[in-house]
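Q: What does the predicted 3D structure of Aromatic ring-hydroxylating dioxygenase subunit alpha look like?
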Amino acid sequence: MTALRDSTALAEWVSRTRAGIGEGRFPARAFNDEAVYALEQDRLFTKAWCFLAHESEIPSPGDYVTRAIANNNIIVARDEHGEVHASLNMCRHRGNVMCKSEMGNASHFRCSYHGWTYKNSGELVGVPYMKEGYEGRLKRKDWGLVAVRVDTYEGLVFGCLDPAAPSLEDYLGGFQFYLDLYLKHGLGGVEVHGPPDHWVADTDWKICAENFAGDGYHTPVAHQFGFNLGYFPSSGTTHSQGWAVSVPGRGHGIGLGHSPDFPAFGGFPDELVAGMKEAMSPAQAAVFAQTRTAVGTVFPNLSFLMQPFSLVPGQPGVRFVTMRLYHPVGPGRMEMYSWCLVPKDAPQDYKTEAYRAYTLAFGQAGTFEQDDFENWTKVTRSAASGLVRDLDFPYVMGMESEPDPDFPGPGHAVRPYVNDTNFRTLWSRWGDYLAGEA
């Protein structure tokens, strides 16, 4: 087994890995290796735009949540003027954690160690014994909370630790077209339904990001009972139909499952569909009308799934959307956040049914969630094995695929939906960051 304990060996491994991606190979050890994890922390998560929260989680002035990018705990708060701020959750005096709750409402944060007090926008406004202790040597304006760069798209709040990184718009690179399939469900957009499910798993984040970038290959196997019992409005035969769409150079990808007999906009209330068509462009509506299931990943670790699910097997399904974040906390270990998104303008009974479908299928104890995590934890464990860590996995499906000239959306769209093209795009971008070229 090759060691990656020094910078030269690691750089050579990254170079070989990037070359292999273009040939349809990817190394098993990438999914559970201490040196790879450390390099991701240093070169990827400190440079990329990473998802922090949905604006509907902090709807009112003073609302906040605490989230993380790499090993940085971050407060995401809405100030008294309605503006969203992100700040490192650390007092500038001696480094104590400022906010110990995962969510709440506060106009100010006061350190429990020495009492330094900050507005929820990050400004230092209170220092005990300021006159007696500092004698004019401390300027409050110089010692606010460390600000984190933020930007938003359709309610999604992203943060970036690199002030020199390109804009969020440039980073998304046109993938907004496909994000709207999840976010423009009516003129009012979407909102989170309750707090996120949240747990820790012995799973590498990259396995999940890859799976949700459009892995339709596993569905008829890992979730075959869903077909047999009528939970899916498709079959093992029709499930592969559709498109794999990626954004080369950005790493984002989406799988669009299509069933010819599935009704356009099926699974949504009729009164909602008109608003959806109005909110989307004609090209987006054309794509949506052909989409049964949409499963996609915003590089590096934010994913979405929209699909119909029959609460009573064999009956017409209700369409639900889950948004998922895979936050790495160690080699082969991650924190999982999972939200249910519902249309703001939808009837309450639809929201309730959509949340129920999400919970039964992809909540923390959801049937399909358990299928996936059982496989993902085993893949992670195997990746740490000494005998396999110099082995590659094949990513050769669709190597010769040509873009579909009739597909109405942007990006690199190939058929069928079961395809490795999105994954090669994902890992190519990952390799750019690890090589320091992104």
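A (community wiki): The structure tokens above were generated from the sequence. Residues 174-434 form a domain with the Naphthalene 1,2-dioxygenase Alpha Subunit; Chain A, domain 1 fold (CATH 3.90.380.10). The chain has a mean pLDDT of 94.
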